Description:
alpha+beta; Alpha-Beta Plaits; globular; 11 strands; 181 residues; 3 helices; two-stranded antiparallel ribbon
Amino acid sequence: MTLIAFNKPFNCLSQFTAEPDSPAGTLADWIDCPGVYPAGRLDRDSEGLLLLTDDGRLQARLSDPRHKLDKVYLAQVEGEIGEEALTALRSGVTLKDGPTRRTDAVRVGEPDWLWPRTPPVRYRKSVPTSWLQLTLREGRNRQVRRMTAHVGFPTLRLIRTAIGPYRLDGLAPGEWRQIDS
């Protein structure tokens, strides 16, 4: 059985097949390990930990929300987020597709290990940004982005750092390593 931890770069699709007329890269541009498939997804504009495996049961367990593997994200949001918005995120917010589960949400400083993004996140001198660490136990489409926008702080950059016991730990964008499962 193969299990791979991959640091998915910005503008890379979580699939091996390119989409017609899309400038986005694919996993095939980075990973040369036949027979592995992603366990879950990250949007094209999100970065960070993506797990890939050749074991169908493990793939289902890693990506199925019923198994409640915590997914940890760092989000750079527009504005100085305060306690009121953090409390709303922690309690769960109601999105168009229903209420979200409770979320661990804390304000953190910009990580010192953070790599530059290409292209860079938009910068506005008059609008500050802040960083959050969010731990989700469910996985809806663009959930973190929708939650932070719902409380008035749009996400500018999103990086997944952990899935259950698996961590990004020092992988640069585009790097991957085989891990013990």
